[in-house]
Amino acid sequence: MLPTFVAVHETSEDPPDALLLPDEQVHLAHAVEKRRREFTTVRHCARQAMGVLGVAPASVPPGPRREPLWPVDIVGSMTHCLGYRAAAVARRHTTRTIGIDSETNQNLPDGVHDMVMNPVERRTATALTTHDPRTAWDRLFFSAKEAVYKAWYPLTHLWLDFNQCAITLGPGVFRALVTSPEAPSTAITHFHGRWGVTGDHLLTAIHVPETPREGNDAIR
Asked: Where does the chain bind CoA (predicted)?
């Protein structure tokens, strides 16, 4: 789902030997155990992925919006859900941004659809469910938008509502159009990503190379 020069480390468990560095640990002073395990394991995954790149394991503390703050020469993204944790990292000279997300393959709770999906997306999810009820298509739209946000925020430092991102799905791929009135004219507004179903999980991923296409269009 990502280029070969992007290092990915994933796990279905929380390794007992996963440790935090001091400037990460301070952010968990009042965290419940579930949050502590998720926070610790994804950073363990990040350091394992850094090692694949030949980069010394480094701290990844959270920023003001809980976004991961990567080492200066590294670009990355992290995700966690029930039964899955992962991190993807690349060197900054190859990659402008990465966004990955994982979700359980279960439909969204009642009452959430209108908040997450626009009318076109809702109709698409309904039609796709008729053909393939094994995939939680509404949850896939949610995951794709989460991946977009994770790729978008490091570039703009702007919040992105669900209704500011329109997703078009294809077989194993998706396109995203971002319409943020606060975004600068140079901001990337088109993202291309990939999606897949692995076991009980939905996975989405976006990779933007260091030199994207012209016209504010990011390639995967």
From this structure: 35, 43, 79-80, 101, 146, 150, 160
Q: CA-based Rg of the chain, rounded to a whole angstrom? A: 17
Is 150 known as a binding-site position? yes
Dihedral of the alpha carbons of 65, 117, 138, 83, in degrees to the nearest 10: 0
Q: Is 146 annotated as a binding residue?
A: yes
User: Has 80 been labeled as part of a binding site?
Assistant: yes
Task: Tokens 């020069």: give the residue.
Answer: 5
Residues 51-87 pLDDT 10s? 999 999 999 999 988 899 999 999 999 999 999 999 9
Pick the CATH number of 7-96 from 3.90.1720.10, 2.60.120.10, 3.90.470.20, 3.40.50.740: 3.90.470.20
> Is 85 labelled a binding residue?
no
CB 14 within 8 A of CB 41: yes
The residues near 111 (Cβ < 8 Å, ≥ 6 apart) are none
160 among annotated binding-site residues: yes
